[in-house]
Design brief:
Order of helices and strands: EHEHEHEHEHEEH
Mean pLDDT: 97
Radius of gyration: 17 Å
Shape: globular
Structural class: alpha/beta
Number of domains: 1
Strand order of the largest sheet: 3-2-1-4-5-6-7
Number of helices: 6
CATH class: Alpha Beta
Largest sheet: 7 strands, mixed
Strand content: 15-25%
CATH superfamily: Formyl transferase, N-terminal domain
Length: about 200
């Protein structure tokens, strides 16, 4: 299996993916990283690991589908001509909501991780610290991650795996974020390996 990472973040979970590749726990091939800006922390992590990097920034007056078409072409270039292996897009802190056109090109092949137990705390506006703040405000007893396929909605795609953690009375948004990121770092690379070995079969 080959995969390309899409990230607009510091790359915390991406680093765990790279570490799992380095120690042989993840045997899939990372063909590249695509980011939306030169100043993302994930870029240095990719360069340190020898992973090709491409920057696809949103241009002035460019609509979402135009941007997604440029993004699509960049991804295809990273994958190259070898179409014998399955191709996956690993969305790890990607900033933009994909258009239906882009989703159609990569149907059931975009794997996202959301920092909550969907369907709770998903949808537009629910990202990053906002999720953890909402979980604490509602006095939930647990939170966690949902690794899911991306579809035309926002956080509505098929859930492949969920893992939970306890929410304690003294938790803060920062401490809850740390717990949830710990789950992401452990289970996202493991899920990619399950796809690689056939233990998880994605819909066609």
């Amino acid at each position: 299996m080959q995969f390309v990472v899409l990230s607009s973040s510091r790359g915390t979970t991406f680093q765990s993916v790279l570490d799992n590749m380095a120690n042989g726990t993840l045997s899939a091939s990372c063909m590249g990283l695509v980011s939306d800006s030169e100043d993302r922390g994930c870029i240095e992590k990719a360069k340190d690991a020898g992973v090709p990097v491409r920057i696809v920034s949103r241009m002035p007056n460019e609509d979402r589908e135009q941007y997604d078409r440029r993004l699509h072409e960049t991804i295809l270039e990273l994958f190259g001509n070898n179409e014998d292996e399955p191709r996956i897009l690993a969305a790890l802190g990607w900033m933009y909501i994909f258009t239906p056109w882009f989703i159609a090109q990569w149907k059931n092949r975009i794997i996202n991780v959301h920092p909550a137990l969907l369907p709770k705390y998903g949808g537009r506006g629910m990202y990053g610290m906002k999720v953890h703040e909402a979980v604490l405000q509602n006095e939930e007893s647990e939170s966690g991650i949902s690794i899911h396929l991306m579809d035309e909605g926002v956080d509505t795609g098929l859930i492949l795996e969920q893992k939970s953690c306890s929410v304690l009375p003294d938790d803060t948004p920062d401490s809850l974020k740390e717990k949830v990121q710990g789950l992401e770092k452990e289970y996202y690379p493991a899920l990619l390996q399950k796809i690689q070995t056939g233990n998880i079969v994605l819909p066609s």
